Amino acid sequence: MPPNIQPPLPQAFLDRMARLLGDEYAAFRASYAAARGGGLRVNTLKLTPGRFRALAPFDLAPVAWSPDAYLVPEDAQPGKHPYHAAGLYYLQDPSAMIPAALLDPQPGERVLDLAAAPGGKATHIAASMGDDGLLVANEIHGKRVWALAENLERWGAHNAVITNETPERLAERFEGFFDRVLLDAPCSGEGMMRMSERISERKGEAARVEWAPELVQGCALRQSSILADAARLVRPGGRLVYSTCTFAPEENEGTIARFLRDHPEFELIDPVRLPGFGPGRPDWLTEGERVPGLGRAVRLWPHTGPGAGHFVAVLQKRSDVERAPVERSGWRFVQVPKPLLGLYDDFCRETLTSTPAEARLALVGSYLYALPDDLPDLIGLRFIHPGWWLETFKKNRFEPSHALALGLWPSDARRVLDLPSGGAEVLAYLRGETLPGAGEDGWILVAVDGFSLGWGKRVDGRVKSHYPRGLRWF
Fold first, then answer.
1. Measured on CA atoms in the order 457, 463, 469, 473, is the torsion positive or negative?
2. Measured on CA atoms in the order 259, 260, 261, 262, is the torsion positive or negative?
3. Closest by alpha carbon to 39, among 194, 169, 166, 152?
4. Fewer CB within 10 Å: C terminus or N terminus of the chain?
């Protein structure tokens, strides 16, 4: 297929939407031909929306339902700016910002994002929690989980644990453990057919090519199974948010109706209605499929708001449900040997103004981590990172991790090379090139306009870039 030309929308999909939407269908169909820019959400762990507006090198338009979200023009290319590499924002469709907002995670809570890749909603949760509490971001797919890890690393989150497990195994281990659980369920992706911004062209093309009525039915069955596991993970009185990026009632109202019939301990609650929030559509189910209250769900449409479309249902678990016991003794790690701990202390004394996370250090293989508080025992489960990755030990030496750099402020480092975002040097650093830089030899925190970007190592007036090879710009 020639570049920038998407496959046609499936006719069976259009026929179904025409039948469901009636008079609204013409506006819905026209939205697929309209120019559409992208969306971004500011990382409030690193700066305020007001400061970002003052720094932003491209035009911004506010998103009505989120004070830290903006629309950017389609030609702005915010993913190619050094601010993106520094984790100042996440590129995200505006309607995809709603599930984490309605989850409403609070500082100090235990929160699970059950199907978290590539990380948009997990980074949103981390920011809402203010890095206080426990965030478990899980992704079952072996390749997609690494994209999740990369995005949370760039976000600078300290309290995130990244697991690579099935929902069933998590439910068996952590039944009733989490205050809030988000399930952004695998779906037929009908909303992604609308995506035309550069960051999502391939997703939109795949959604158009792969869609079929049989896919919708298969997704609905799978969603019911995963949602049942998600329900087990919620503590009594806790919140479960179910979302999809599809319009099919079988995957949305139908899945929630089946769930509520099977799980009377949950109720569907009505969130605050913001501009662009449409109601759930129980009228799109047969009379025998409906349950009371389905109109409390939220539908977002590409013809009524700035996003590509989403469905969100907010479910509350009754507080009088019996709570299963969960192992909370903490993860039984190998203690950090004194020689390695000495190397870490030496690095902090020579390079930083303080020692991060002294009380929660743990060794996994050759990797040193700072564990979040309230981390349960993960022995026997697949994981990528059990906390904030600090460094890697290598034959009587160590290398500080990129995650450590992105989780620090320049004021935390004794040696800083702060590069202007509009200059050639910051691009050279991101390409892995060596830069001139007079000063004391040793590890140096490289920053862009006052925001941490990565590590360098200065020797004899030259700073070698230690920006990770897999992330380098070309």
1. positive
2. positive
3. 194
4. C
Ordered structural domains, the chain, with CATH = 11-317 (3.40.50.150), 410-474 (2.30.130.60)
Q: Mark whether 348 is an active-site residue.
A: no
State pLDDT tens for residues 81-123. 999 999 999 999 999 999 999 999 999 999 999 999 999 999 9
Catalytic residue among 187, 219, 245, 348: 245
Q: How far apart are CA 366 and CA 360, in angstroms?
A: 16
Order of strands, sheet of 388-394, starting from the edge strand that comes earlier in the sequence: 361-364, 367-370, 388-394, 397-400
Strand 416-419 and strand 442-448: the pairing is parallel
| Single-letter amino acid code for the residue at 144 | R
Name the token pair of 185.
């369920």
Please state the rounded mean pLDDT for residues 383-411.
94
Largest CA distance in the chain: 77
Helix (H) or strand (E) holding 236: strand 234-244
Q: What is the mean pLDDT of residues 59-63?
A: 94
CB 246 within 8 A of CB 312: no
Separation of alpha carbons 139 and 143, rounded Å: 9
